[in-house]
Every structure is written in structure tokens, then in C-alpha cells.
Fold these 2 entries.
Entry 1:
Amino acid sequence: MISLVDIKNILHDPNPEATEQLAQDAGRLTRQYFGRTITLYAPLYLSNFCSSYCTYCGFHSHNRIKRFKLTAEQMRQEMSFLAKQGIENILLLTGESYQATPLDYLKEVATIAKTYFSNISMEVHPMEEAEYRELFAHGVDGITVYQETYNRKRYKEVHISGKKADYDYRLAAPERAAKGGIRHIALGILLGLADTAEDLHALYQHLRWMERHHPGVEYSVSFPRLRAIKGTDFAYCDVDDITLVKVICLTRIQFPRMGINLSTREDAGLRDHALELGITRISAGSNTSVGGYTVTAAEKQDPQFDIKDHRGVKDIIAILKEHNFDPVLTDWRRIDN
Amino acid sequence: MDTPLEIAGKMFTSRFLLGTGKFKNKTDLAQSIEASKTEIVTVALRRIDLERHDENILEYIPRNVTLLVNTSGARNAKEAVRIARLAKEAGYGNWIKIEVINDSKYLLPDNQETVKATEILAAEGFVVLPYMYPDLYAARALVQAGAATVMPLGSLIGSNRGLKVKEFIQILIDEIDIPIVVDAGLGAPSHAAEAMEMGADAVLVNTAVATAGNPALIAQAFAMAVEAGRLAYLSKLPPPKNNADASSPLTGFLYDQSR
């Protein structure tokens, strides 16, 4: 396991040749273990109700945005829209509200989503092992739960109130999901919240721990970068492109077989280049507002974060092929959990 | 000359099996199948998409090639059995390669669960080709369970490291009566030739072909290496020795009575 000092040395090394070497090594490992294949997924926001106050998020409980959640009919409309474009891997997201989007609502969502998609993941509030098991039984194969930062002091500063303020409950969520039978678990840190090297080191330790204790789970990681969001005001540091690239490459070298996700928070140029480095899963044609695909008019949308890559699914597929990648839409067939 | 490879009563001229993952496009795959003249191709059920998309992988596999659906993604026997049944119901035949992997870091197969799945599926009439770690007891249990072949790994999947467990594969070749197909870790045609020289009945390759600059070319090279290795095995290779042993003795005449 790489030491914190080594991570710091790599991230702070200004030598472009060293970065290039890192990228070459990462690119070679990615091709060896994944070939030239890139898996596509799309996010679908179900609700922006949130009972947590996290300073960096557009959905936080103190932000004055219009709150609503999709009805069953609206969900079908949104899902059908994405399915028609060829999306098979769906990431269903909600704000973290145990009241507005309780387990029963999520089970209903899964039941509907099963009729449109072969692979269902959720990024929702952390829950108990038994609840994860219920979601699994309803066809949810993946759970995304980012710690955001592993720095307890900083965590407390930016997660002011609500259940998300409980660091330890969130930290143990991936393990509860694994025990509940979930197949794919995505971990991540929000780059820009705290010291990148320290968070990366802690994330690696978390991943190693999970691999050892729950080896059957397929893990993936994400490195969303903080950006300014309407109506929020908080201190964060900019993580530049060079650092982001190093983070991706270093992660590939440390975890050769692990999936690395990249969302449309990043612009098209960076995303296209990152495919050569270590990214194995990208979102396409994303909208981060509730009902953003078909229900809510564009001018009335309050996105969770701003999208930088606006290309649709078809465009992304064409571009991947142009760059000699096989776009993978289907890589899972659901069996009755 | 060589007899055909027989698996579950079906005869094959080619002893080279090809996996279909990691190719950068379907044309590369189709060309690799053609160039290698492989007759058995394995596809993960999870990658087959019949429902709605234009690029269904099966369209790139000629009809005369035997389709071997694999249970990639299964973490235990129960899941492998479900995937196999789904494949059969979907009309992909009854040839199934069992892969039960419950370790996402090393992707090592779980022999115990593989035996269980083999037993259930063989009893249901599947032709079962189980992927396994080369352990003699597990191999015997697989034969007992009704497996059509045993498919020991050469080294970790995708590692290109060749026959790291060579001596244990040799034991399976010597002791197990059903075909031994060496699967996983073969990174170069020389690795494939080595396995065939040892007496393996066939090999399966995926990563080394799919991730090559020119997949069709290396697929052909693998197929040729498999043939060469097979011929070497049939020729009864003389064993290697540590001391020099001149082909034509120089001092034999001294003891020649007829001189």
C-alpha cells in the first residue's frame, strides 16, 4: 500500500515527465485489464428533498429551491426517455431525506426501473444492512456512497446538520451494503474539500479494507471535483487538471482491476483524454435536476451540480468509436436476487 | 495424425478457444475468429444484449462456431446456475462455461462453488466446462459432477504471465481423463505452445488477443502455436536433460565388436 508521503510526493511533483510516466503506466494497466472498452451509464434524479445541510451541495436543506420528487408516472417517463437512447446502466439519485424518500419509495422506484434497465444502482441516503438487503432483493445491484472527505475536522465543518453529519455512520455504509448483498459499491472523495493527498490515502485504505473483508464485491471509485454552485458559499480549494489526472493514474496503478467513474461535471476535452488514462465508466447525456430529462422545463431546473459535458448518448457513442473504444451499454443481466 | 478434440460427443479440429471480452470493436473480434479458425467462442451472458441495440455481439460470431456462454458475474453456485438457465431460456444452447468468482481483486475461481454448480447443471443436461484453479481434488470432483472438460487457469486472468502453475496443470493432464483446456493468463503464443506440448487438449485465450495492436494477427499466431504444440506433444518430445548427449556418439566405434 502506497504511503501518504509517496502520494504527496507524486501529487506535488511539478515535473511533466513524471506525470507522463505515471500516465503511461496507468494507461497500459487499464488496457491490459479492461481492453479498449468504456461502460456507459446515466444518472436519474428522483428527488431533491434533503434533510442534511452540506455547504457544498445545491440540494442542501437550507437552499431555497423548489422541492419535489417524481411520481411513479413521471419516473416511467424519465426512464423510458433514457432507455430509448440505449442506456442500460442507471444510477438513481435522491437527496438524503429519510422522510421524503424512505425505503418503501426506493423499493417502488427499483421495481419500476427493473422494467427499463438491466443494471440499477442507487446513490441515496445511507441505511441499515437489512434495508440494503431489501433493496438488493428488489433488483438494486449497486450502491454509491461517497465519504466526501476522510478528514473528520473538515467533514464536520461542511456537513453542518442532518444525518449526513454523522461521519461514522456514513463511513460504515459501504460495509453494511456489502453485508446486505450489494454487488457493486462505488466509493469516492469530493476533490477540493480537504487535502487531496490525505483524502486519497484514506480512500485507498478504505478500499483495501473493503477488498479484504468483502472480496466478492466489485468496487469502483469516483473523483468528483468541487465547483461553485448557485446559492452556496463555502471555502474550497481548486484541484487543477494535472492533479486530477495524477489522482486517476495513481488510483489505476494501485487498483489495476477497479472501475474508475467520471461524470459530466468534467468538460468534454478532459473526459476524452481521461479515457486513455484509467477511466472505465462514464455518464452520458446527463441531467442533474429532478425530472430534468422530460418533466421539468429547462429554465425551471435546479441542478445538483452544473454539467460541463453536454453531449448526448449517441454523440458519446460516436466519439468513443472514433477514438477506437468499444462503448459498452450492457454489461449486466439481472438475475433474481 | 491428430484426432479431433472431442467434447461431449462433438468433434473439433481446432484446439484454440477464443474469449470475446475487451475487444475495441466487434470487427476485430470477427476477424480474430476468422483468422484463428477457432470453433468454440465464449461470451458472457451479461454482455449479450438482444433487447434493443444495434450491435449485438452474437451477430459477429459465425453460426458454425460453437457458442459457449459463460457465467461471468456469478459470485456463487446459485448465481451461476441462474445465469446458465437464463442463457438456455434465451436460446443460447446448453454449452456453459462456469465461472464462479468471489474475489474482485484477483478474480480467482471458487472451486468449491464451481463443483456445486457443475453438479446441478450437468444433471439438467448442460454441457459444462468449468473454469477452475488447478487442484487435483477439485478436478476429480468436477469429473464426478459431470463436467465435460476441466479448465484450469495458467495464471491470473488478464495477467499475460503464462503457465505459473505449470506443475499442477501437468498433474491434471496426467490424472484426469476428460479434456483439459488451459484457460486464463496465456499472454503469448509461446505460452499456448508450452501448454499444448505438456499434453493439454486445448487452450482458451482472450486478453492477449483482444488487447493486441492487431488482434487478428495474434489470434492466428496463437492458433498456429497451438497446432505446433499439439504436434510436438504427439511426436513424443524427448525429455530435457542436464548433461550433454551428442546426437551422434563419437566413441561408439571403440566398442563395436564388428569392427
Note: Residues 104 and 115 of chain B are 20 Å apart (CA to CA).
Entry 2:
Amino acid sequence: MNNAIEAKCLTKRFGKNPAVQNLDLTVPTGSIFAFLGPNGAGKTTTIKTLMNIIKPTQGSSTVLGVDSQKLGPKEFAQIGYVSENQEMPDWMTINQFLNYCKKMYSTWDDKFCNDLINQFSLPLKQKIKNLSRGMKMKAALVSSLAYRPKLLIFDEPFSGLDPLVRDEFITGMLDITEDRNWTIFISSHDIDEVERLADWVGIIDKGTLKVIEKTEDLQNRFRRIELTLADPINIKNNLPREWYLLEQQGHTVHFIDSQYEQAKSEDKIREMFANCENIIVSGMSLREIFVAFAKKFMISEL
Amino acid sequence: MINFTIKFQYGSPIYEQVVYAVKKAVVTGQLKPGDIFPSVREMAKELRINPNTAQKVIAHLARERIIEIKPGIGSLVSELNTATKSQRDQILNNEVEKLVVESKRLSIKREDVIDAINRNWKLDK
């Protein structure tokens, strides 16, 4: 199985409102996939449809090779799922909760579970209802890592967590990658957290997937360009389509090249700006790339 | 424990950045022959990089014989290699030629280039 998740033309409407529209998604096995988008973009609806919590209006999806609508106990035993609004039995202590989960999974690994408990300093005797948000999320993470799932699905795991807890959360999440055949799918509106971790990025807005690409390719092709011109000139109208958000202030011109290639881009710049004196090319963070997309395509910003 | 320094920059592949940081640490003596080199998981967790990237870094370093993989123990930093003839040619002809061409193209003076080489050479104090 090459892809842990596949969705084809996945559509979910609530009444007349499309929450997700014609979504084609491929998440290769062994990847960390960052599913990014502003609040209300359709991230949670997509995940719930994939996980057979809600039914799609149209289209289909598979998770671990099985049709989402046919997912059963056998598949769920291989999937770890932690969501922002994780429902947990408030009246139980962490210890009771973990023992309760343990009974449901034949692959439960006690040693791994204890390592995680220590790593997270979880107070085993405390009741879940008395835990801070951070502790609750960490308890949820332990309960979904300890059976060593093949696929981890996180829906906004970082929201409302302080930086220290986020850090622990990510470290814990990476523990699972010791196993073979792991895949991690994280939805987030927080790009910085997953910057160097994600090898695939999907950007969703208003229910539509705008980008699905390898992080490395995205970062290779996006560059911020700054030019100094000998004389301020009027900019031509027929600028290359891959140049985004061009602005001129006197002698300086800024834009974003979305198809940067070292060998070709400089020639193209000199062709458009014959009197160009200096070219500064700089790489962009995932956040900067996202903001460029947002401005160019009027996506609501994160 | 990560025993080399790295500051990530945007725009070039993370894999290349880590490989380069390790090479620099070896040359400056920050990493010494026989030092234990971090595992894939340690590297992924501490540098916050994708485990696949960390795996690629280790494979590349082993291929270039900068580290040696000892089954059951982990990876160790190797002795500095002596260049083969083709590696010498690559650096002394191709790489230096590129440097000269770029310098001349940008009217950088020969003395300045030589000064810069000498300054950078002291990296390995």
C-alpha cells in the first residue's frame, strides 16, 4: 500500500453549504503530511469524512487501503486519532483511562506507554476533569500512541497548547516513527510548528484544496526577489504569470517568483528589466509562501 | 544529544543544510573521530526534522565516509578522509574555477578572494 490516505472528489455539504468540495488527496505511506488552512476551511470535516464519522455527500476515500465507509475495529486498531475537541471520560483518572484503552488494543505496548507517561510527567492518579488542557492532550496522545498505530491523525493538536507542551507533543509524536510503515497526518492552522517536519503540504481554503505538494519542491520554487533599477521605469503589463504580488517603490521592485530556477530566472528578470542593477534572491519560510498564496488567491489568511 | 551546530535557513533543502553542518563540524573539530553520531530518531527529535530527512542525512554521510555505521552501536564519526585524485580535481579545478569565474564576473579583486580563502581556512584551528 503506497498511500495511507486517498480521497477522490470528496464532497460534503451541510444543507446547501459545501464544507468540502471535490477534494482529491493523496497521503503517501511514511510521510508527515501537514493539512493547512484557516479556521473553517474544511479541515475537520475532511478528517471526519475520512474516519467514517460523517458520510460524504459525493466522492470516496480510502484509509490504510480500506474504503472509509467500511472502516471497522480492525482498521481503527491501527489508527491513532487525536482531535482538538477530544472527548474523554472526565470522571476517570489517567491511570483508569489508559487501562480502559489498553483493553481495546491487542498491540498495546506497556513499556512504550510507561516511557511516554514519564516523558510527559503525566499525573496518573488525577481525574481527567481536573487536568489542564495541555495535560489532557498529552494523555490523549499517550492513549493513541501506546498501541503503535500505523497511521496517526491529528486534528489541530496544537491549538491552545503552550510552546513547551507543543514541543513535548511533537517529540512524543516522533517516537512512533521508530516503527515501520508509520504515517502522520496533521491538520493545523499553525504552519511554524510543522515547518521542517512535514514532507508534504496540503492547503485547503473554503472547502477546496489549493495546493498539494512536497514541502521541498514548494520551498525550491518559491523565492522573494528584490531588484534595484538604474532608473525607475514603468513596469510592463505582460509580466510572467508565475510572478506574484509585484510592487515598485522608486528604484526598487519586489515580487515573488513562484517558479524560480537559478539558471533561468535571472535571464527572465533581465529581459523584463533591462536596466536592472542588482538582484537579491531569498528563500521563503512555509508561512511566507502561504501568505503569498493567500494574497494572490485571496485566501483568508491564517 | 546533537553535537554539531546548525541554524536553518529557508530556500535550500534541509537535507543539504544538515549534511553541510556536519561536514563543517568535522572540519572545525566540533565533531571528533570516534564521537558517537546521533541516530535517526535523535536527530529528528532534536532538530525537528522529518525522520525521512534524518535517514537521508545518515545514508549520505555514510556514503561519503564521514560517519561509519556500526551495527548494534550506532554511527561513529570517521577519521578525516584523504582525497582521491578525482575528488582533488573536482575541488582544485572545477570548484576553484567556478569561484574565479563568479569573482571576475562581479569584478572582485584577486587579493580579496585570496584573503577570503585564508580567512576561511583558519576555520580549522
Note: DSSP finds ten helices and 14 strands in chain A.
